[in-house]
């Protein structure tokens, strides 16, 4: 049995040698790609005041925050995502003229059910394009997400594109029934279309319209022409949301990435701050999104800065699960010596030479026998170079 002081809290994990390097490398690679689009890195504290994070949470999600009481009695919490802290940052500290292109990589915390790739502490990378409205901005963040995934090495994935106006269009006739709207949103998030059909029927929607809406929500559309065939049969408010999506789709086509997109009008995000285009990214073998985002034009208003914004986040652990196995790296060299015939300076000079050629090198300055050096190299999975006089063994 593991001693209690050697355990870690449920939903957290240690990153071992090799694993931690892959995680850091992926984060750095994403930031490099986003930087090529003109995005600049920002960081925010892991701890925020609870009231700050609550601006981006709603209902069940606020119950998943890790809350603490500060010594002065304030309620603080571990950040559960990065968009809300960055909204606070921009509203309070960022200078200059919009738009601001910001990128980040960091740990977030959310108390949720644990499964592979879904922990309570997890890393996110992402971007926020703040201060620019319109399909050009939405199309840019979509294109950046697709390009980043390609360059990181993910070969097969699909972006499911939706719009918050779909729900608004469905519930247009029941605008004052907040309980029904909340229930409809929850049913769509759960993909419970039988329950949604029953709800819409119960509140009095025409059965023909219900059938059209359920048909639209349960069918993915791989081209705009497919979706356009259904558009004229839908309520006007819902058509307005589709018209916005058409413009975004066109921008992504201009980037050359339309083949990665499908329209799935049941796509919503759990955070309640989204106001327009939303999307989630899926890949084979993972039963939940590896990333997502969308437009959130009213979030910064909650911090006193009325400013449009759009962005996305990718889950680093989920990406690591999705990526193919990496080719083997250059094998580490362990260099040791017979110090009766070789000086420490000569050993270190040789190690420096190999490092300059790109090899990882462990230097061993203890006086080991060759047998001891061989055992150590085997333990470290390294290639031994044994220096002796004017010769060397192993390379």
Shape: elongated
Q: Indicate the mean pLDDT.
A: 89
**Helices and strands, in N-to-C order?**
HEEHEEHEEHEHHHHHHEEEEHEHEHEE
Number of strands: 15
CATH names the topology of the largest domain as BirA Bifunctional Protein, domain 2
Number of helices: 13
Offer a quick outline of the entry.
By secondary structure, the protein is of the alpha/beta class.
What are the defining features of this structure?
15 strands; BirA Bifunctional Protein, domain 2; 395 residues; 8-stranded mixed β-sheet
Structure characterization notes:
It is built from 13 helices and 15 strands. It is of the alpha/beta class and 395 residues long. It folds into 2 domains: 16-41 and 84-108 and 123-322, 2-Layer Sandwich (BirA Bifunctional Protein, domain 2); 333-393, no CATH class. The model has no long low-confidence stretch (mean pLDDT 89).
What are the SSEs and their pairings?
Elements: H1 19-35, E1 40-41, E2 47-49, H2 50-54, E3 67-69, E4 75-78, H3 83-92, E5 100-109, E6 121-130, H4 135-152, E7 157-163, H5 164-170, H6 178-189, H7 193-202, H8 207-217, H9 224-231, H10 236-255, E8 261-263, E9 277-283, E10 291-295, E11 309-315, H11 316-322, E12 333-337, H12 344-356, E13 361-363, H13 370-379, E14 383-388, E15 391-393
Parallel strand pairs: 1-5, 7-8, 12-13, 12-14
Antiparallel strand pairs: 2-4, 3-4, 5-6, 6-11, 7-9, 9-10, 10-11, 14-15
Helix pairs in contact: 1-4, 4-10, 5-10, 6-7, 7-8
């Amino acid at each position: 049995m593991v001693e209690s002081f050697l355990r870690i809290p449920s939903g957290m994990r240690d990153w071992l040698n090799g694993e931690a390097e892959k995680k850091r490398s992926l984060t750095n690679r994403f930031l490099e790609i986003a930087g090529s689009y003109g995005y600049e890195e920002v960081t925010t504290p892991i701890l925020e005041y609870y009231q700050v994070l609550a601006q981006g949470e709603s209902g069940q999600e606020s119950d998943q925050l890790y809350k603490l009481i500060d010594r002065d009695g304030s309620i603080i919490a571990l950040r559960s995502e990065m968009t809300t802290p960055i909204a606070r940052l921009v509203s309070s500290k960022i200078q200059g003229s919009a738009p601001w292109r910001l990128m980040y990589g960091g740990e977030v915390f959310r108390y949720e059910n644990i499964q592979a790739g879904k922990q309570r502490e997890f890393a996110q990378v992402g971007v926020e394009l703040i201060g620019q409205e319109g399909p050009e901005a939405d199309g840019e963040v979509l294109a950046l997400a697709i390009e980043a995934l390609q360059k990181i090495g993910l070969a097969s994935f699909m972006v499911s594109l939706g719009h918050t106006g779909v729900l608004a269009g469905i519930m247009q006739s029941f605008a004052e029934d907040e309980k029904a709207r909340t229930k409809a949103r929850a049913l769509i998030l759960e993909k419970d279309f039988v329950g949604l059909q029953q709800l819409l029927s119960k509140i009095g929607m025409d059965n023909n319209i219900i059938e059209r809406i359920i048909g639209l929500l349960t069918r993915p559309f791989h081209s705009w022409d497919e979706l356009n065939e259904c558009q004229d049969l839908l309520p006007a408010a819902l058509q307005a949301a589709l018209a916005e999506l058409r413009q975004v789709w066109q921008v992504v086509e201009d980037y050359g990435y339309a083949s990665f997109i499908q329209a799935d009008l049941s796509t919503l995000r759990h955070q309640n701050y989204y106001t327009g285009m939303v999307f989630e990214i899926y890949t084979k073998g993972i039963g939940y999104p590896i990333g997502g985002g969308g437009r959130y034009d009213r979030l910064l208003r909650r911090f006193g800065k009325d400013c449009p914004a759009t962005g996305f986040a990718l889950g680093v652990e989920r990406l690591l699960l999705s990526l193919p196995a990496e080719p083997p790296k250059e094998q580490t060299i362990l260099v040791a010596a017979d110090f009766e015939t070789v000086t420490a300076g000569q050993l270190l000079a040789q190690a420096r030479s190999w490092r300059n050629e790109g090899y990882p090198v462990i230097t061993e300055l203890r006086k080991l026998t060759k047998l001891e050096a061989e055992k150590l190299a085997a333990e470290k999975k390294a290639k031994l170079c044994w220096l002796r006089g004017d010769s060397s063994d192993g390379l």
